[in-house]
Write a structure and sequence with these properties.
The chain is mainly alpha-helical and 93 residues long. It has three helices and two strands, in the order ααββα. It starts with a helix and ends in an 11-residue tail after the last helix.
Length: 93
């Protein structure tokens, strides 16, 4: 999974399609895991669905992997500045 998303980022960066490369980066970094919003338990009352919430792990749980993935984002930002696309719509925001 990580290797395929990394190769997708590099592919889009080589073709100077930085928006799609950025989308692939976000899939790599946070994925599509459900992040619970709000408080799970408040006082003595607990939501009835609290036991069904699954906290999915992502690559930022490991410190070394977090630094490595953030380095990929920094490289992507550098590459966009060094080799800008011909079409401005392909640039990251």
């Amino acid at each position: 999974m990580v290797l395929s998303l990394l190769s997708e980022i590099l592919y889009y960066a080589q073709h100077r399609e930085y928006v799609q490369a950025s989308d692939a980066y976000y899939k790599l970094s946070i994925g599509n895991a459900a992040w619970p919003i709000g408080v799970v338990a408040v006082g003595i009352h607990e939501r009835s669905s609290a036991d069904r919430i699954q906290y999915a792990s992502h690559v930022f749980n490991d410190e070394a992997t977090r630094k490595w993935v953030q380095g990929v984002k920094r490289w992507l930002t550098f590459a966009q500045g060094k080799w800008p696309p011909s079409d401005r719509r392909k640039m990251m925001g």
